[in-house]
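Subject: two folds for Thursday's group meeting

Dear M.,

Sorry for the delay on this. The cluster queue was jammed most of the week, so I only got both jobs back this morning. I'm pasting them in the order they finished. Each block is the input sequence followed by the predicted C-alpha cells. Could you check whether the formatting survives your parser before we put anything on slides? The first protein is the one we discussed after the seminar.
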Amino acid sequence: MNSSNLTEKVNVMSKEIPDSVHYIFGVIYMLLNVVATTGNVVVLYVFFRSKKLHSAIYFMISALCLGDLLMSSVGLTILSIASFATYWVLGDWGCIAYGTLMTFLGLMQITLLTVIAVTRYIFVVHNNNIGPCSAKVITLLCTLYALGFSVAPLLGWSKFVLEPIGTSCGPNWVGIEWSDVSFNMTLFFLCFLAPLSFILFSYIMIFWKIKKKRIQKKNETYEIHVSTTILFMIVAFLGSWTPYAFMALYIVITKNNQIHPLLAALPLVFAKCAPIWNPYIYFMRDTKFNHECRKMLPILSRLGLWRVNPGSSQEDHVMHLNDTLSRKTSTYV
C-alpha cells in the first residue's frame, strides 16, 4: 500500500463525510463496544468458573465468544477513536494489521457458527456427540481456515486498504482488479454462502427432528422456544454479514466501485454488530448456562439484566423432551 495514496484517500473521505456523521458513528461504536464486551466477558467468566460447562459444545461457543470479545474490545475501540478523529489514525502498517486481525476474527466467527450448527445437527438428528478433544481439534481447524484467508492479502492475493468511510481498514471490497475480484468472490462463496447453507440445513433438520418427536400438545412450548432461537441465530447471521457480502458481489457484477462513502459505511456498521449477538442468543436462552449464571452472578438476575427461565416445571419439561432426543442431551439447541 502506497503511503501517499493512503493519505490522499483519508483526506478525500474526510471531506465527503461531515464530521458530525463520524461522531455519530463513534458513539454507535462505543455503545456496541460496551454491550458486546460486557456480554462476552460474562459468558467467558461463567464458562471458566463452572465445571458443568466444560463440555465440547460449550468449549466451541466459548471460543466463539473469545473471538467476539477481541473483535469488540480491540476493533470497536480503534474504530471509535478513528471516528472521533474523523480519519484513520494508525497509518499504513496499522491499517494492514487492523484489516488482518478483523478479517481473521470475522471469518473465525462465521466458521465456528457453522461447525456449532453442524455439531448440533449431528447430535440431535443422528444422536451422536463429539468429545472435548474433538472440539479442540475442530476449533484449531477453524482457526487455520480463517487464518489462511486473512493472511492471503499479505501474500499478494488482493490487499488490505482504507475503507470508503475513511476510518476503518479491511479487504479491498471496492477493488475491480482481478486479484481483488477473485479474493472477494472466494470469500463470498467459501466464507459466507457455504457456511450459511450449512447453518440453514442444520437447523432446519434439527427443527424437523424435534417436530417429529412431539407427542403431546404441551411440547409445543418447547418447539416455539427452539424455533425462536433458530430464527434469532439466522437473522443475526444474515443481518451482520449479508450487507458486506452483497456489496462485494454488487461491485463484482456491475464493475461499479463508485459508491458513496456513507452508503459503503452501512455494511461496516452491520458487520461490527456481529460480536453482540452470540452471548445473548446462545447463552441467555440456554437453561444450563442460566442456572450457572444465577449461581455465580446473582446480581444480574436481581437487576433484571439476565434472562432466566421462569419456573422449574418448564425447565423439567425441557429436560424431559430433550431426553426423548438423546440420553446425553443438554438443554442447549
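Second protein, same layout:
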Amino acid sequence: MSVIYTRSDSIGRKIVPAPLVTMNKSYDTDGDGTKRGSAYKITLTGTLIPFRGSPSGSYSSLNQAFWTLSGDPPDETYEENNEDFNHILRKQEALRWLFSEDGGVLEWQPSNGQPPIKCYPRVVSINFPEGQWADRGEYTVELEAPWVYINGSVELEDDTSTDLISSSSETWSFEDITGRENKQYRVTHEVSADGKLGYDGAGSLYENKNAWEHAKDFVDTRVSGSINSDTMFAALGASDKIAGSYSNVVNIDQAGGTYGVTEEWLVSDLSTYEERQFTVDYDQSQDEYSVTYQGKIEGVSLDSLAGNVSDLNQAKAAVPNVETARITAISYVGSFIGDKTLPISPDKRTFSLNQQDGTVDFTYIWNTSDSSIVFITDTAQHSYSLDNSLNTLTFSQNIEGKGETSTVRLANAKSAVYSSSEALGLAKTLAGTSLSYNLVSIVKAFDERQGTVRSTWTWTDKDAHSTEISIQTQEAVAVVVTIPIPGRATGPIIQNMGTKNSEIITVTIRSKRNTSQPTLATEPYGESGTIIGDSNTWNPQTGAAERTTRFLKET
C-alpha cells in the first residue's frame, strides 16, 4: 500500500514505508442527541528508518525531501558517527513540514490495484513517541475530514447539509411583561452554530466558504422572522396572538467559526397597549383642582419590523379623543376632586410620536375652575410721586382662552376683556384706594397662537385733559408822580400822591386733548374782580387750548 500527501503545490509526496491507516467515523450531536455533523478521524501510524524510505534524511531543502516518482526510492548510503540519529531527526522535520498545510490530498491505495481512497483533511496533531531514535523512529499523524472519496466520489452515508456543523443551539424564551392590562410577552429566539472547514475534490475550500459561513447557512434555515405556531401554543396556550415589533441581532465570530442570530418580538393579545398616569394638584387659595392625564400607547402590528410605521399607526388610532379622555380621567380620579367637575374642554393637549418605538405619548390637562371659556388673572398697582404729587393706578388683566383651536381660544379671550369702568372698579378694590382717577392709557396685547389677551389700564388723579392752572398776582403799590424840571441837574421831582394803584390778578388755564374748543372758566380764580383783559387760543391739530384773563381786584 502506498500513502501520498499532496500539498498546495500539487506535488504528490510518498511516505515510505507506508504507515498503517486507521479510519473512524464520529458524529457531532446537540444536547438532545440530534445529529448535526459527522467527521472521519484518520490516524497514520508509521515508522521512520534511517538511510531508507521517504522522506529522506539527507535532503538539501524540505520540498525535496520526499519521493515523488513511481515505485520506491533507493536506499541511501549508510553513514556512521550517529548519522542514523540525525537522519531520524531530519525525517521528523520533513514529516512535520509535509502536514503543516490543511486541505491537502491524502491518498492511500492497496497494493493489489484496488481503487484509491482520498480525503482532504484538517491536520489535528503529529506525535513522535519516546524512543532511542537510533535505528527507527515511530510517529502518529491524526487528521480529520468531513468526507472520504472512493473512486473520486464522496461516500454519501449521511445528510451532507450538516457535515460541516460541529454543534448548534436553538432556544425560545417567553417573558411575561408584568403590570400590563392587555397580556403582552417579550419573545426571544436564539439560534447559533459552530461550523467547520471542509475541502472539495480539488482541495479548495468547500463552496469557497469559511467555517463561520457554513454555520450561517445552517442558522439561516432556522431563522424565518416568524414565531413557530407550535412553540407559541406550547408556551402561551394559544397560537393566534399578535406578534410584531420584530428585530434581530447577528453575532459572527470568524476566527471561532461561529454564527448566531437572536430574534425578538413583542407578542400581544391586542394591537395596542396603553400606560396611564394621573396627577391631581389642589390649589388651596382658589379651592380648585388641576387634573393631568398622561398616557403612552404602544402599537403592535402583525409581522411588523421594529420601527415600522405600521406600529405607530396602530398607536395613533388608539389615542383617546377629548370626550373619552375626560371620562377615563373621571373614572380614575373622580373621588379625589369631590364635588368639583372637569370642564368639557381641557386646558391643554400635547402629543409626541416615536416611530422607532411605535409609540404615542399624550397629555390632557383640566382645571376645575375652568367651567367658563376663559381663565383670568387680575393684578393692580398703586403708586404716588413726591415730585409732582401724582397718584397713579395700574391694572392688568391676563386672559387665557379655552377651546379646541387657537382661533376659538383667542375669540373667547377677547370676549372676556373688561370695560374701562369695570377695570377701574376692580383696580380700586384690589389696590384699596378710593381716589378719583382719570384714564391715561390702555394697552392690549394679543397672542393668537396661545389664545391669550393681556390688557393694561393706567389712571392718574389728574383730570382727563391734564388741565394746568397758573395764577399771577401783581400787588398794589404806591402811586407816585414824576415831574421833570427843565434845567434841574438832580433830575425830576418825584411826588408821592399818598394812594395806591389796584391789585391785578392774571389767571391762565391750559388744557390738552380737546377735540373742540373748550370753555375754560377763569372767573372762579379772579375773586370777582373786574375783567380788564381776556384772550382764548385753541389748536385743532394738537387739541391744546389756553385762556388768559386779567382781573382788577376791587378793594
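Two things I noticed about the second structure. The chain has five domains: 2-160, 164-268, 272-367, 374-460, 468-552. Residues 83-98 form the longest helix (16 residues).

Cheers,
T.
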